[in-house]
Design brief:
Layout: H1 10-30, H2 33-38, H3 40-57, E1 61-64, E2 67-69, H4 74-101, H5 107-132, H6 137-166, H7 172-178, H8 183-204, H9 214-217
């Protein structure tokens, strides 16, 4: 799923720089810095979770340049920290991951595709579920974590395919034969890992989840 410097037109990469910087600026403005800086434990959790994402992102399998898979883990990350810190965190992780690849021209596009888009989808689904559905533990785990992670990863795959086909980097016939058949095998583990992570955190450290509250989901 990683885009190389030479895979897409340079003007598209420059446009991605602009969109990424605007999104990042909004996230920096909206981030709950006071709550994060007030508790050293929260800072350590943020750093540890970001390191976990980095380790997941540097291991990937692929069939062709740009047509690959790696576990995102972004949905659990978003449920832990919210949209603003989620965007900032995945952007920092992508900067670190780019040191291993050297594809600096595609940094912004990769950050948008692999980080910002899944974070936004994950938080959007959570917000809709929280607003319109009963505050039930099973609904939170299954819809906000498991199903949400599959949807967020699917959105990233869809955006990648549309981008590669629209720029004529690959034909849709080639993508449909070489890449798309493996997508279901990728989405289920993504949902499973995020769902298991959230389930474990609810049982052990629910205070690490910004979007979860025992008073709401267990006693409400």
């Amino acid at each position: 799923m990683h885009i190389n410097d030479s895979l897409l037109p340079s003007d598209l990469l420059l446009f991605a720089d602009f969109i990424w910087l605007l999104t990042l600026a909004q996230a920096v403005r909206a981030a709950p810095w006071r709550a994060l800086l007030a508790r050293s434990t929260r800072q350590h959790v943020f750093a540890g979770a970001s390191l976990g994402l980095f380790l997941m992102w540097i291991f990937a399998v692929g069939v062709r340049p740009g047509l690959g898979f790696h576990l995102l883990g972004v949905t659990a990350y978003t449920l832990m920290f919210g949209w603003a810190l989620g965007v900032i965190g995945v952007s920092l992780v992508m900067v670190a991951a780019t040191f291993t690849t050297g594809d600096w021209s595609a940094l912004a596009l990769n950050a948008l595709l692999i980080g910002v888009l899944p974070v936004s989808v994950s938080y959007g689904v959570y917000a809709l579920v929280h607003r319109y559905l009963p505050h039930h533990l099973f609904i939170y785990i299954f819809l906000c974590a498991f199903f949400n992670a599959m949807l967020a990863a699917g959105a990233a795959v869809l955006a990648l395919v549309v981008l590669l086909v629209a720029t004529e980097t690959y034909s849709f016939n080639r993508i449909s034969s070489d890449y798309l058949p493996f997508v279901p095998l990728y989405l289920f583990p993504e949902g499973l890992i995020n769902g298991m992570t959230i389930t474990a955190l609810i049982g052990v450290r629910p205070d690490w989840l910004k979007t979860y509250d025992d008073e709401v989901y267990l006693k409400g």
